[in-house]
Write a structure and sequence with these properties.
Blueprint (H helix, E strand, L loop, with lengths): L1 H29 L7 E2 L1 E6 L4 E6 L2 E10 L10 E10 L15 E6 L3 E12 L2 E5 L4 E5 L4 E5 L4 E2 L3 E3 L9 E4 L3 E11 L11 E7 L3 H21 L1
Helix pairs in contact: 1-2
Length: about 230
């Protein structure tokens, strides 16, 4: 009777284990980039202090404005606005953004300013979604890799920029490695500061590598195997 009870317990444990493995491994097999994306949930922004705060999974995200350059007669710089209720559809086009976000939060930034995003703890391979860059250039403190973009977004080793009258210059860029902070300067791209557009939308995501998920699956299998032997 005791042996039968142990066998049933082991069977139930293995059943739950394989269900969990299906949830973890299936997205990897499907090669779907949206599979495990973590997206920043922006909780607050302050257009006066030019800051924004949120969480990216278990990572605290803090956006600060190092230098807010107010354009004469326009009065716009730094952090302008934000969507905090997960209703922004700006990053939903899968041909432009990787991973695409059906709905999301976002922060809107002014042109001709300097920004820093701080991660605590460090973020690994963070992805920046940039929407409506228009006639602006963003120059970053770290090397970047483009994941996807519109044709009118030009990418350099550490910078991206749009062209005149191209309000839809958008795309996703990734910073490989572990980062506690990333800084960048927003400046006009071949135009005067008076022409540089505002309302550049930003969202930050993480996409764990399939190898990480595979290692998790192997660890779970190992646990299940030892449990069955003891049973």
């Amino acid at each position: 009777m005791i042996h039968l009870t142990r066998s049933l317990t082991a069977w139930m444990f293995c059943r739950r284990l394989f269900l969990l493995l299906f949830v973890v491994v299936a997205p990897v097999l499907c090669e779907n980039p949206v599979r495990a994306a973590l997206v920043t949930e922006w909780s607050a922004f302050d257009a006066t202090a030019n800051t924004a705060d949120g969480f990216l999974g278990g990572i605290s995200v803090s956006l600060t404005t190092d230098l807010a350059v107010v354009r004469p007669s326009l009065g716009d710089s730094g952090v302008l606005d934000g969507v905090l209720d997960n209703t922004d559809v700006s990053f939903s086009d899968g041909s432009v953004f990787t991973p695409a976000l059906a709905v999301s939060d976002s922060i809107s930034l002014g042109a001709t300013s300097e920004f820093t995003v701080t991660f605590s703890p460090a973020a690994v391979d963070p992805v920046f979604h940039i929407s409506q860059l228009a006639d602006n250039q963003l120059t970053f403190s770290a090397a970047l890799t483009v994941l996807s973009k519109t044709p009118d977004l030009t990418v350099g080793a550490t910078s991206i920029f749009g062209v005149s009258d191209a309000d839809d210059a958008s795309g996703s860029i990734q910073f490989m490695g572990m980062h506690t902070s990333i800084s960048w300067t927003s400046s006009p791209a071949g135009a005067s500061a008076f022409r540089a557009d505002d309302g550049i939308k930003l969202q930050i995501a993480l996409v764990p590598e399939p190898s990480i998920l595979a290692l998790t699956a192997l660890a779970l299998l190992s646990i299940g195997s030892r449990r069955r032997k003891r049973a």
